[in-house]
Specification:
Length: 82
């Protein structure tokens, strides 16, 4: 099974999650919630693998079956009133 790694981060100014790194060529997307981002990924991954099939020497990586691991990072800093 081909496992694809997708790393996401949160933009507090835009109040949205976005893909900042991935081993899927061309994957760039965002969403208001992490759940929405996760729901978008399967279709986008499959479409990009098909569009970029010529980039892979190991064709077994793109023929499937597929899974993805979403690694998300969110950090918050808040002042605490004394």
């Amino acid at each position: 099974m081909a496992e694809w790694i997708v790393r996401a981060d949160y933009d507090p100014e835009a109040k949205s999650w976005y893909v900042f790194d991935s081993d899927v060529p061309g994957l760039a997307t965002g969403a208001d919630t992490l759940e929405e981002l996760e729901a978008k990924l399967p279709g986008m991954i499959m479409e990009l693998l098909e569009l970029n099939a010529d980039l892979f020497d190991d064709k077994s990586r793109i023929t499937g079956p597929h899974s993805f691991r979403l690694v998300a990072h969110h950090e918050a800093f808040r002042a605490i009133a004394a």
